[in-house]
Amino acid sequence: MGELFRSEEMTLAQLFLQSEAAYCCVSELGEIGMVQFRDLNPDVNVFQRKFVNEVRRCEEMDRKLRFVEKEVKKANIPIVDTGENPEVPFPRDMIDLEATFEKLENELKEINTNQEALKKNFLELTELKHILRRTQQFFDEMEDPSLLEESSILLDPNEVNRAAPLRLGFVAGVIGRERIPTFERMLWRVCRGNVFLRQADIEDPLEDPTTGDQVHKSVFIIFFQGDQLKNRVKKICEGFRATLYPCPETPQERKEMLAGVNARIDDLQMVLNQTEDHRQRVLQAAAKTVRVWFIKVRKMKAIYHTLNLCNIDVTQKCLIAEVWCPVSDLDSIQFALRRGTEKSGSTVPSILNRMQTKQTPPTYNKTNKFTSGFQNIVDAYGIGSYREINPAPYTIITFPFLFAVMFGDLGHGVLMTCAALYLVLRESRLMAQKNDNEMFSMVFAGRYIILLMGVFSVYTGIIYNDCFSKSLNVFGSGWSVRPMFNPRVGGNWTFETLNGSRVLQLDPAIDGVFQGPYPIGIDPIWNIATNKLTFLNSFKMKMSVILGVIHMLFGVTLSLFNHLYFNKPLNIYLGFIPEIIFMSSLFGYLVILVFYKWLSYDARTSRHAPSLLIAFINMFLFNYSDPTIQPLYRGQAALQSLLVLIALACVPCMLIVKTLVMRRQYLWRKNLGTQNFGGIRVGNGPTEDEAEIIQHDQLSQHSEEEPEFNFGDVAVNQAIHTIEYCLGCISNTASYLRLWALSLAHAQLSEVLWSMVMRIGLSSRSLGGFILLSIVFFFFAVLTIAILLIMEGLSAFLHALRLHWVEFQNKFYSGQGFKFLPFTFESILDGRFEE
Fold it and tell me: How far apart are CA 471 and CA 739, in angstroms?
């Protein structure tokens, strides 16, 4: 259980792997994911390492697989994911994989090239078919007798006789429909109106063979006279990317050509269908195994990349690696190395040798699906230093509890719990779906955090007796108005008094009015009281201070276990003890005063109770001469003065004494050796010359372990720490008042939403009122989820996060370590393909 509260104990180990067994051994280590390899060749370029060629071959195979995956997705074929974890192929299998991928890539490229050429030919034939049909319609319209008669009336007979022997030339083609207006204007301007253009839209869109997009085109025919205009027209068509096709002049030739084109189109359509069927079969077969291929190739690439981090001995027969690994997993690592050696067929076992080092190991905290979310909250502040106290186990309880103090509402807590339960109970199915939505992934990763936040919110909602801004009267109120009607006990209320007064005050000092506390939580009668806010403000503010001081004292207490573990008695006597005394004598005393006031004053004497805030301020000012301020207890002034003096005495201990003691310890270590008294060597120690050599060796060794002691730097650092802690005790205590502020804001916002929305729907009891209530409830539910659950929940989450990071963790958690990043295939199996 000790490892739950601290990071795992790590060790630096040296691996000796035989060259023929290294690949399989690293593969087995990647499967268990328990070792972090160190780069033993930091000065060697990545392109000059031993296995760079194998890495390049893996990258080339990965590129081919990405091409296949792209083609599969383009064909809208689902990639089969069975969750299989294939074994890493042997190095000798790389040639077979390369041949398979090369064959598949070439086959797909050849199919795509042929298909593109066929589609291009099909497009040209289709356009030619439309041209032949449309041009025939154009010529039929021009040969209409009515059109000829109208043209002869407009022309002079002499001009008709002169124009009769002239023959007009024409070109026909296809152009994008959006280019027609500009194309027509350009023809008119360049040819000065001496050409005649007819165009018609192609109704069905055509497929672009290059991009596969559907494009809309139009058929055009241009009539002109002379070669000069013909050249101009062709250049304009070329500039507008219009495609020109040959068109016979006689109707008979056009008819014969159209029949031939239709026959070729039918034949080409049959070939295209067969080509597409063959392509679909190839891609469907690839879709079944492309994920397994990806995993195999990327595992191989990760292994060779890891082998490049190793050193090779002079005999070229052994690879030497250095790894960080948990001490508790050494047996598993040894077993994995044995499996890798047996799989490779090597007869020489791999050797795992633990090393002694002065380097700081990485921090590794073992987690599961429940604790990983809370560990991520802690790691977001900073990775813990090696073997220091891990705040995550305590955060599992304190984080959702502090959140619930701010979010406490029974109804909202039930909704949040139900949402989290859905994610928890269906987690296997939701994980199998592999949703790529970043927001959903973040919420799903914190499903257990949300579950605990909802459960604790239900608890605090019961304590506050708050459910959608309404109180639940389950056990009956502890207040009674009956004694107020009895004149014998001093009451003078009548029914006329009740009917004529909007506000009446229940006096708890009268016997029988206050019959006892509500069994659990706040009495529901406070929900209709006019002084509800006054009562709740006092209660929640004091509760926030109590919870805050307890939370901070717990954080300071945890620092003691750090000092004990790292064997730093100086930090205990001149760090922890002054800190705990300073906080306890001031703010711990304030908490005791809160409980003392609650227990010492009843309904009859409470109006004469002194203010705790004034008493706490006077405690720092030593102001006890004001006769209007009554003391809470006898001897209050003497005790409070003593506590302040004790707190002030703790400051020099942290600020000055600790620095002087650290300097004295450094000088003692520096002058360690034989001591001369009056020039006479005492004891049987070494001579003066030998002592100088020993002292020099010790100082040189000490200089390697820790830097030179600088009194100024240490004094400034200690002064900063002391000032930060002393002022932080005040500011951090005030910071916990956000528990009160956000709880009040959430309750008031919930009450406003109820009074402004739901009260409209509840105002009528007719059938129309029921319909109105249904509509109003819909808006009430949407606003409740959007504002009170999501926005207010996120706000309370962030404030709880700040209370843990700043007010709690800075008391004992330095967070200056670096994370343990083991070599593992887990990310490749999850589909992230990271190394």
Answer: 21
199 strand-pairing partners:
220
> What are the b/e assignments for 283-296, b being 16+ CB within 10 Å?
beebbeebbebbbb
Q: Nearest to residue 128, comparing CAs of 39, 11, 42, 254? A: 254
**Alpha-carbon dihedral angle through residues 421, 424, 428, 429, given to the nearest 10 degrees:** 30
Q: What is the pLDDT of residues 150-190, one digit of tens each?
A: 333 333 444 444 444 456 788 888 888 888 888 888 888 88
Q: Using the predicted structure, report yes or no on whether residue 681 has a pLDDT greater than 60.
A: no
Mean pLDDT of the chain: 85
Domain architecture of the chain: domains with CATH: 1-40+309-364 (3.30.70.260), 133-156+165-265 (3.30.70.3450), 387-473+742-811 (no CATH), 536-672+707-734 (no CATH)
Rank 234-248, 421-435, 545-559, 717-731 by mean pLDDT and report only the highest: 545-559
Query: Which residues, at least 6 apart from 239, have a Cβ–Cβ distance to it below 8 Å?
Result: 186
Whether 212 and 236 have beta carbons less than 8 Å apart is answered as: no
Closest among 135, 262, 127 to 204, alpha carbons compared: 127
How far apart are the C-alpha atoms of 777 and 721, rounded to whole Å?
Answer: 55
Where does the pLDDT of residue 462 fall: very low under 50, low under 70, confident under 90, or very high at 90 and above? very high
Contacts of 680 (CB under 8 A, 6+ apart): none
What's the rounded Cα separation, in Å, for the pair 480 and 513? 5
451 is written with which tokens? 């579950």
Q: How far is CA 142 from the centre of its chain?
A: 71
Q: What is the pLDDT of residue 607?
A: 77
DSSP string, 95-135: HHHHHHHHHHHHHHHHHHHHHHHHHHHHHHHHHHHHHHHHH
Beta bridge partners of 214: 207
Cβ 358 vs Cβ 782: under 8 Å: no
Give the residue among 245, 195, 240 at the shortest CA–CA distance from 222: 195
Q: H or E stretch including 306?
A: helix 251-307
d(CA 632, CA 612): 9
Q: Between the CA of residue 487 and those of 490, 551, 603, 648, what are the distances in Å? A: 5, 50, 20, 57
Q: Is the pLDDT of residue 423 over 80?
A: yes
Task: Give mean pLDDT, residues 590-600.
Answer: 92
In sign, the C-alpha dihedral spanning 107, 113, 116, 122 is negative
Q: What is the pLDDT of residues 381-397, one digit of tens each?
A: 999 999 999 999 999 99
Distance CA 787, CA 806 (A): 27
Specify the pLDDT at position 545.
Answer: 95
What is the predicted pLDDT for the residue at 486? 55
Which tokens hold the place of 160?
């008709």
- Give 504's DSSP letter: -
CB 588: neighbour CB atoms within 10 A? 18
pLDDT at 334: 93
| Contacts with 616 (C-beta within 8 Å, 6 or more apart), sequence order | 590, 593
